[in-house]
Amino acid sequence: SGEGEGEDEEEDEGSEEEGEEEEQLAWADVFPEGGEGENAEAEESQASKEVAEESDGSEAPAKEPRMKTNKKKAENFYTGANVKNKNRAKAALMKSLQGKKGRDGERRKSAIWRISSQRIRRVTDSYLQLLWYLCAQLTGSGHSDRGYDNQRLRLLFSPSPTSPPTMSITKVHARQIFDSRGNPTVEVDLYTSKGRFRAAVPSGASTGVHEAVELRDGDKANYVGKGVSKAVANVNDIIAPELIKSGLKVTQQKEIDDFLIKLDGTPNKGKLGANAILGVSIAVADAGAAEKGVPLYQHLADLAGVKPPFVLPTPCFNVINGARMRIGTETYHTLKKVISAKYGIDAVNVGDEGGFAPNVSGADESLELLVEAIKKAGYEGKIKIALDVASSEFYKDGKYDLDFKNPNSDPTKWISGKELADIYIGYTKKYPIISIEDPFDQDDWEAWSHFTKSTDIQIVGDDLTVTNPLRIKTAIEKKACNGLLLKVNQIGTISESIQAAQLAQSDGWGVMISHRSGETENTFIADLAVALGVGEIKTGAPARSERVAKYNQILRIEEELGSNASYAGDKGFSAGLTAPAILKK
């Protein structure tokens, strides 16, 4: 075989030019519209004659005609007998023909030789379909041990065939961009045959100690140590090549997330960084939706096993929980007028999340402002209030320092968890409060459990649970809260976020999808809120484009779904031991 191999290689190199015309044969030319036609038998006879000529040693014509008739002619064209043995690499394929005799076997043999090494190197999606068809010819007219089914092939090769799906990831690239606070964050571009899919990662201002690691550079000379070049490099140099090499498809969200977790190899994603991993995970989800040809919320719902009809979430505008977007927005602007009239124009400058920060003396004064704004907007009874206390920020030595802004606060005035709980209960009796987030420190389990059993409102764990299934399980066991704040960057993958939501709902908790203080224009969490049907979303005030972008996406989804969606209202909120009504349907 050594002599033959050398000859084959030389002949193959010399044949590249003569194959150029055949390379131009488009897929539409191979299988144009039309059936087999009345001349099928004549064409079959002609093909047989060509095979006989080959067996007699006759020379093949220099060039073949381009056939633009029907499927049968195209088949005869590619099973003719005028192309000689060209490439030793095809010898392995010939083994499958051993034992085949007669005209049919010869025609199949010549079909294989027609695929030159040059064509293989320059193969396109159209030629991939042609290869599938030729392989099918090796196996006869029925099923085969090679896995080809001609019934499926007939479906694939309809009169107007489309290219086969290529769900593989072809490229992943990360870069450093800026979030809404001007801090660096990670952006990831992921490429498939469908195009480019982009994801940007948010970051928190007050972060729980149990959150997955947000990898920062720590170089004070660059962005005050907040650069993310290490996380970007981890995507480009580690995640990208390994993920592409894995061959995983973008529709395999769970498998890809598990692959990323294993690649990191730490319990808190401290090696690669949750910000690096999450960017890839979100981009994969977006690409998966495109591959399936469905909206992102539908794809995410499929991943979570959620069936229609979909539920549109109740928006939580910063500290205002509105029953509708218009109502919440009108109240927000009314509040702006109330604050401006009382504290001056400087008091209506907005913070990171679009909320106002007037110089009030305490929580009571803030709540009174909200109640006044609700009344003046004409929505008394229709709007409720939710609080995000972030108590871990003023927890000191087992006590709570309510004067924490004063560097010289008196330690003798710090209060216990039970005393703080009594203050909250007083607020719930005086104001229309239906939800309190992080009322206690992230590790003050005793205070959490005491308060949850003492009230009939929603108690939400953020720093307590950090979207981590293990922390959620502990909170369920201790009956520490009845609501979960879900932040995808706290855990680092979409699959784990879905798992966290499902675990919380299994115990009758409410679930609120949330933004972070350092946000981007990415609207992923809007689709996630609709997909999971949790009924609550918190993504800032109706101001600042990175906040409004999420609300606008919900409006688009609402328009798209029409009557196929319902509005959650207050049905997504838990109340003491009462599970959200949304879970009872």
What does this structure look like?
The chain is of the alpha/beta class and 585 residues long. The longest helix is centred in the middle third of the chain and has 19 residues, at 274-292. The chain has helices at residues 2-14, 20-23, 27-30, 40-55, 71-77, 91-94, 102-113, 117-121, 125-137, 150-156, 229-246, 253-264, 274-292, 296-304, 325-343, 363-377, 417-430, 445-454, 469-478, 488-491, 494-506, 524-532, 545-561, and strands at 171-178, 184-192, 195-200, 310-312, 314-317, 320-321, 384-388, 395-396, 399-400, 433-437, 458-461, 483-486, 510-514, 536-538, 565-567. It has 23 helices and 15 strands. A hairpin with a 2-residue loop joins strand 5 (314-317) and strand 6. Mean pLDDT is 79; it is low at 1-44, 50-55, 63-89, 107-124, 136-164 and 320-324. The strands form 4 sheets. It has an 8-stranded mixed β-barrel, surrounded by 4 helices. The chain has a 3-stranded antiparallel sheet with strand order 1-2-3, covered by helices on one side.
